[in-house]
Amino acid sequence: MWAVALPQIAQSLAFGTFWMRAFFRGVDPSLIEAAQLDGAGHIRTLWSVLLPIARPAVVTQVVLTFMWTWNDFLIPLVMSPAGKMRTAPLGLAFFQGQYTSGTTLLAAGAVLVALPMVILYLLLQKQFIAGMTDGAVKG
Question: What domains are there in the chain, each with its CATH number?
Answer without folding.
Answer: 2-133 (1.10.3720.10)
